[in-house]
Design a protein that fits this description.
There is one protein chain. The protein has 114 residues and is α+β, with helices and mostly antiparallel strands. It has a domain of 74 residues: Hepatocyte Growth Factor, CATH 3.50.4. It is 12% helix and 29% strand. The chain contains two helices and five strands; from the N terminus they run E-E-H-E-E-H-E. The protein has a five-stranded antiparallel β-sheet with strand order 1-5-3-4-2. Strand 3 and strand 4 form a beta hairpin. It is globular. About 15% of the residues have low confidence. This is Apple domain-containing protein.
Amino acid sequence: MSIMAGWQFQCAATTCLPFSTDIASNIVQCQSNCLAHVQCKAASFHQSNSSCQLFDSMPNQNNSLVLTIGTVAMMVVSGTRIPSDSITTSTTVAPTTSTTTTTTTSITLIPDGT
């Protein structure tokens, strides 16, 4: 993530409001919260109240960054998310019952009389 200490995202339009505001004990937890959501593109961590705002669109850096003491703005760098930005889906199949059949074959040897 790209980290900008002392800056926060501020938007006039509703299109760049955070999709989630969580409590995070530190900046690392805020980063982890963002990276855990595939849709998260940026985050702001406010040290004064331990709030972590997650954004699903990349705010325009030039118009929406405001100098704020005690706040850290972070942006996800494309291609650096582990696991990668690709969406993984899984399918769960309900357990089924199976039947095992055992066949026993016996061979009887008959002497040839010699």
